[in-house]
Write a structure and sequence with these properties.
Elements lengths: L7 H11 L3 H5 L9 E2 L4 H6 L7 E2 L10
Parallel strand pairs: 1-2
């Protein structure tokens, strides 16, 4: 699955509101990895630090995809 968010605050909101549904959702899926593309706030970078999420600040090549 590929998810996009408007900003770091939207990702953090998703994280916080996902928790009540996590047990049921985890029955149907397996978390594999996460990557961050674009500008990430310090709060977001700290929140995902424990799972070693790569952070790519330059996404210009993705903008060429149609």
């Amino acid at each position: 699955m590929f998810e996009t968010y408007a900003n770091s605050e939207a990702v953090l909101f998703h994280f916080d509101n996902y928790k009540p549904f996590a047990p049921k959702l985890n029955e149907a899926r397996t978390f594999v990895s996460m990557e961050i593309f674009g500008n990430a706030s310090e709060d977001l970078r700290m929140r995902v630090k424990k799972i070693n999420v790569p952070h790519y600040t330059s996404i210009s090549s993705l903008n060429k995809l149609k």
